[in-house]
Structures are given as C-alpha cells and as structure tokens.
Amino acid sequence: MKMLNPLNKRFWGGIVLALVVYAVIQILLTTGIFDDVTRSTLFLICINIMLAVSLNLINGVTGQFSIGHAGFMSVGAYVSAILTLNFDVPFVLALIIAGIVAALCGILIGIPTLRLNGDYLAIATLGFGEIIRIVMLNTEYVGGASGLSGIPNKATWTIMFLFTLITIVIITNFIRSTHGRACIAIRENEIAAEAMGINTTLYKVIAFSLGALFAGMAGGLSAHTFYVINPGSFNFLKSFEILVMVVLGGLGSTAGAVVGAVVLTVLFTVLQDFPELRMILYSGILILMMIFRPKGLLGSTGISLKKFAKKEATKNDSISSESAS
Amino acid sequence: MEYFIQQLINGISVGSIYALIALGYTMVYGIIKLINFAHGDVFMVGSFIGLYSARNLSNAGLPPVLVLLLSLVISMTVSALLGISIERLAYKPLRKASRIAVLITAIGVSFLLEYTGVAIVGPQAQGFPEILNKKQYTLFGSIQVDSNQIMILGTTVVLMIILQFIVHRTKIGKAMRAVSYDMEAARLMGINVDRTISATFAIGSALAAAAGVIFGMTYNSVDPMMGVLPGLKAFVAAVLGGIGSIPGALVGGLLLGTVETEVSSLGYSSWRDGVAFAVLILILIFKPSGLFGKNVREKV
What we know:
The complex is a heterodimer of chains A (325) and B (300). Chain A is built from 13 helices and no strands. Chain A is mainly alpha-helical and 325 residues long. Chain A has a single domain (44-317), classed as ABC transporter involved in vitamin B12 uptake, BtuC, CATH 1.10.3470. Chain B has 300 residues and is mostly helical. The radius of gyration of chain B is 19 Å and the shape is globular. Helix content of chain B is 73%, strand content 4%.
C-alpha cells in the first residue's frame, strides 16, 4: 500500500487534483452553467468510470476474461433501490450494502467458475450475467419485467465524486500492493505464478469480488440517478459497453479505463440519436484496436500523474513495463 | 406420456437447429481454440439471405421444393464466403496474439454484424415466406408431427452425413483433423494451415446458414438480433457435447433442445433461457470436457 504513505508526493498530488476537479464542477453545477443534460452525462461518466476501472481489475490486471459485469451492476442497482424504496435505508449505507451483496455474488460465482480458463470463463460469466437477469425478470418482488420505478433521485455530485474517487484509489492501491502483483503474475503466466507459491484461485476470487463490489456500487448509483431500473438495462450489451471502454483505454491500465470511460460516454451522448451507428462504431473500435493497437490508447501505463511527479514515477513505476496481453 | 413424447419431438426439431450451429463452434474451436462469437450472427445473415432468395425465387414461380433447395444453397454459399472473409480480415492478423485479444475481436465482429444488419434492414422482425405448405401427420393416436419438423430433421441428418464424409474421407478433412491435432506439426508436414482454417470457417458458416434458413421456416420471423440467443445456446450445446467433437455437437444440440422444450412445457417458459446457461455452468464445473470431449492436460 505504497500510495497511502503520507510522504508520497504522487498520492497527495492526486488528491489535490481531484479536489480541484470536484470544486470546479461543483461550482459549475451550483451556478447553473452546467444544465441538466450535462449533469446527467457527468454522472454517467462517473458511473462508467467505476464500472470500467473495476472491470479492468478483473480483465486487464488479473487477466480473467469476464463479460458478465452488468450482472453485478444489476445486483447492486436492485439491492440499493429496494433498500431505499422499501426500507428507508440512508443512501450511502444502501450503496455500501449493495456493493457488499454484489461482492458476495462475485465470490459465489467466482469460486466455481474461476477454475476455468480463458474462453470458458468468459462464457460462464456471460451465462451468470444472463441468469441474474432472468432471475430478476421472474421475481415479482423486484417488479419482474417492468422493473422498479420511482427510485428517489438521491445521487448528488458529492456522493458521485466520492465513490468514483474511492473506487479509483482503492483499486490503484490494490494493483500496486502485494496482492495486485500476485494478480499481475497470474495474468502473465498462471502456471508460473502457481509455481511461485501464489494461491491463484484465492487471488482470482479476490480480484473478481473486488470488481463486483464496485460494479454493485456503480449499479446503485445509476439506479438513483435515472429513477428506473429494469432487467433489460443490464443485459449483455451493457457488459459489452464496459468491455469496450476498458479495451479502448488499454487492458491493465487504470488511467486507460478512466479515459476509455470518459471518451465513450461522451461519444454515447453525442450519438444518442443514432443507436445503430453507435454500436457499429463501438464494434469497429474494438476490432481495429485489437488488430492495430492491442495495448489500447494508453497502453498499460499506470496512473497518468507521472508527468507531475516524474522522479517518483521512475522509482515505483515497474507496472508500466509489463505488457497488457 | 404422449404429451412427453410430443414435447420430445418438438425438442428434437429445436435441438437440430442448435446442433447445426454448434457444429460451427465446435469445428472452429477444435482448430484454432477460438469461441467464434460471431457465429450466431453468421446464422442470422444466413437466415436473411435465405429469406431474400426464397422471396425472389417464389416470385419467379419456381416449384416449392426447388425454391427451398436453391435458397439453402445460395444462403450456404454466401455465408461460407462471409465466414472466410471474417476469418481473413479479423482473426488471421491475430493468429499470434493472445487468446483474449482474439476473443474480444470475435465479440466485436458479432456486434458489427448485428448492428450493420439493423442499419441495413431495420430492427423490426420480418416474416419468412412459407415455402412448403405445412402438413400435419398424426402418429400413434395423438402425437402430431408436421412436415416442417420432418424437413428439419431430414436436412440436419443429410448435412451431418455430408460433414462426416468431408471430415473423414476427403483430403481437406484430413488436413482439418491434422491441424486441430497439432497446428505446428501439420504446417511442417506441408499442410496449408491458413487454407485449412478458411475451409473450416466456410463449412461451419455454411452449416449455420442452413440452420438459419430452417429457423426462419420454422418460426416465420427473422430479425438482426435473432442470432444472439441461438448462438449462445448452440455454444452451450457444443460445450455440453464436448467442444471439438462433431458427434458431441449433434448430441449436445439435441439434448439441449429437448431439455429446453420440456422445461417450457412444464410451465416455466420464462426460465427457459436460464436453463441453458445453468446447464452450461454445471457442465463446466463438473465435466468441462463435455460428454464426448477428450480431457486434455495442460503442459508447461
């Protein structure tokens, strides 16, 4: 947990930068320079950053190809919505519980499926994502096919920002910790990692449930931003969208995931009136990225504050030397 | 009991469609270890080509049987070409890349086909022309079989026999088996690996297209998103039978189709899609090599 060292310039640099971003946007929102459309785009960006960063932990860092991320998101969305709707639980607490329930689902799904490798895992996670959706569809308590509506709009910019920041900080720290190194080792060569004494199943499950935790929180935030949730909004397409963000930014790079999420969300809003064109563009991006620049826009570089703290960066930036694939 | 048998017959006709699609998955996986996510969409394209050729040929006044055969052949040929071009353009540049990279590309190709389809023909479903008049036959008292179901089973069996012949009796089939056994050794023995892989894609895509035409005739409706679920379920069928095994794909497809129909006939039709995935996960956990698959140990 190097980043938590108070002497670490990069960490404090990052916090200051984050606070500045927060303050500027807060001012823009309160003074009304940002209208409602911009505001909801902004919130969507935050949610997508959380999703992309958490998926990147599973797909990019640990190398376990999961395409069921929307399933965890839906668990979080439903749990938090029911908690605030039916039980009057405070919003932040509901979000945390939602994340924990999603993480438990992650453990439950991860333990049997993470023994599978590569493509089989992909299909199994896809299957679980679909099963979660079908269970929601058939449960009357959560509204069946029509879903839940009238969810209180409790997501504020402060909460949104805080959760996004926490996601990024915790996941970045995790990647740079001993456990994160173990995950990277699993990605690079699972058999070698096992031979070096790494409990591969344990670390895969940890990464998987940590990813699910934040996906669940993101789901809760999205439910409380857009009032309505139904099983259809958490289908394979949503998982695919998150995957494109991660791939665009560069598998294995947290900064890349953030950039990918921002770029694609903006693109998404601009192309809102042309849904087919948007999807064609998404899939085109995916194919061309894989063929011509599999590293993604940023490659697998670590957090991009390097420019501000170059000396520190050269010291503890060995992550960027590893390749993404 | 009769109801059960009736459902069994319905299940077999759904299962035949899964089996035909599953063959493409299993052959491609056997040869380059790739889950070709785009396969379900090749099935969709095949169905659409079948739809347009059937429409035009019926308008030209040809006899129904000829219309059916010609649409099948046209659709299979075009889809085979599509399969080859997908392989050449999207997968071949990545032959040396990591498997995840190829998998992501496959997902990309899948969505590209779907949404190009939406952009060209629109998202709404289109009716498939009724080529053959449906006839009901009654067997053993109350069990009903219609001519479509017989046609489905017949087409599937004929295509399977052709496939078995190609794989086991021809030179390209021998090359396919060799490449799937050991690509490098096959290359050293002078087999043109790239051409063999293309041939595999062509055959798999042609089978998917045949399934697409049959699907259109059975359900009378085709749309650009129709390939997603049958594609995924056919993959489940391939895994169930043991991926890489051709008889496995057939058995897996029939088994999955039957299980699904039985589940919906018991009144749980909204859970039907979940069952396929539950079957998949159970298989993957307890017997990842499937019913007919070989258990391959990973070597360091």
